[in-house]
């Protein structure tokens, strides 16, 4: 009887813990979804002529944060005597720091935003009827799908071709580092030109080359080189996807609205592609088959790059 009660208590605790994990993940996702468009609008408002460079700083911060959390998650879990809740929850400290950093800025601009609210009311609509906004949404969704799929299946694919778990982890680290470097360097290069087409095409080809080599030529091409090329492609594509809505909008409010629509639909697409990749794995029985999703997605991005005609907007309004 006592054992039965303990078993029931354990299952109840598991259900509560799982629910809280999903709930906190949902809240974190909502925070990320809200922050993305707002930061794009902030960049457009305060740095309209240097938006690409500031996006690079923003992406570098994201990359450093992701790298730190990945590097210290397991050591913290071990130091906390196996407590994953501590290893996950400790990073909320950075959210508190973010609130403290943003609060003076919010208070400073609150009166100005209230004064201008009536003049902006008419333009507070997402650009659902704009074809270019839909094109950017597709680009953002496809590049997100490449990143999430690679993050999901890169280590399993590495182990499938003979690497041990530690080496596979190193391979993923190489991918992440190259992505972070590309995320920093790409905006600086984009700031020197009004054309995005050639860069979009180049990074799409990098993604295709790295994925194809790791999928079909792991013996002929060093997997670490393949992962590095994949990381360059993913980092460059993400940078461009963030910069595109800033290029074609003239006000910070429009930049936020465009970014909100693009990231809303884009992340939905990006989240589905790893699932599609999993279906390919179930059908083919290997992670080589799952990498077909990455190859097809890269090919679609190349096609989009060929037909893309957009250019950088050069007139700005401080609204």
Structure explained in plain terms:
It is found in: Cell membrane. This is MFS transporter. It is a multi-pass membrane protein. The protein is globular, with a radius of gyration of 22 Å. The protein has 319 residues and is an all-alpha fold. The protein has a domain at 131-307: Up-down Bundle (Growth Hormone, Chain: A). Mean pLDDT is 82; it is low at 314-318. The protein has helices spanning 2-46, 51-79, 84-89, 92-120, 131-160, 165-190, 197-216, 223-247, 252-284, 287-290, 292-307.
Q: Average pLDDT, to the nearest integer?
A: 82
CATH class of the domain at 131-307, please? Mainly Alpha
CATH architecture descriptor name of the domain at 131-307: Up-down Bundle
Q: What can be said about the biggest beta sheet? A: none
Strand content: under 5%
Overall radius of gyration: 22 Å
Number of helical elements:
11
Overall structural class, as computed from helix and strand content, comes to: mainly alpha
Indicate the low-confidence ranges by residue numbers. Answer: 314-318
Subcellular location: Cell membrane
Organism: Paenibacillus alvei
Pfam family, one: MFS_1
Domain Major facilitator superfamily (MFS) profile: 1-313
């Amino acid at each position: 009887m006592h054992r039965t009660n303990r078993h029931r208590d354990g299952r109840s605790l598991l259900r509560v813990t799982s629910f809280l994990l999903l709930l906190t993940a949902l809240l974190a996702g909502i925070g990320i979804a809200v922050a993305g468009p707002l930061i794009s609008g902030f960049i457009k408002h305060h740095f309209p002529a240097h938006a690409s460079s500031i996006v690079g700083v923003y992406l570098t911060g994201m990359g450093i944060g992701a790298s730190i959390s990945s590097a210290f998650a397991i050591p913290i879990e071990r130091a906390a005597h196996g407590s994953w809740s501590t290893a996950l929850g400790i990073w909320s400290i950075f959210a508190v720091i973010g609130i403290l950093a943003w609060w003076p800025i919010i208070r400073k601009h609150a009166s100005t935003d209230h004064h201008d609210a009536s003049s902006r009311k008419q333009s507070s609509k997402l650009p659902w009827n704009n074809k270019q906004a839909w094109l950017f949404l597709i680009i953002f969704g496809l590049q997100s799908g490449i990143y999430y799929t690679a993050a999901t299946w890169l280590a399993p694919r590495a182990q499938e071709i003979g690497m041990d778990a530690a080496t596979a982890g190193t391979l993923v680290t190489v991918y992440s580092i190259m992505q972070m470097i590309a995320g920093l360097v790409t905006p600086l290069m984009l700031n020197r030109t009004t054309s995005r087409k050639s860069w979009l095409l180049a990074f799409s080809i990098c993604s295709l080359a790295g994925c194809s080599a790791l999928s079909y030529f792991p013996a002929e091409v060093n997997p670490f080189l393949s992962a590095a090329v994949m990381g360059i492609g993913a980092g460059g594509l993400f940078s461009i996807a963030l910069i595109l809505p800033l290029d074609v909008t003239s006000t910070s409010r429009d930049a936020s609205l465009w970014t909100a629509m693009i990231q809303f639909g884009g992340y939905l697409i990006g989240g589905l592609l790893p699932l599609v990749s999993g279906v390919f794995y179930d059908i083919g029985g290997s992670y080589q088959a799952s990498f077909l999703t990455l190859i097809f997605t890269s090919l679609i991005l190349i096609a989009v790059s060929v037909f893309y005609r957009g250019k950088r907007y050069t007139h700005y309004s401080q609204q």
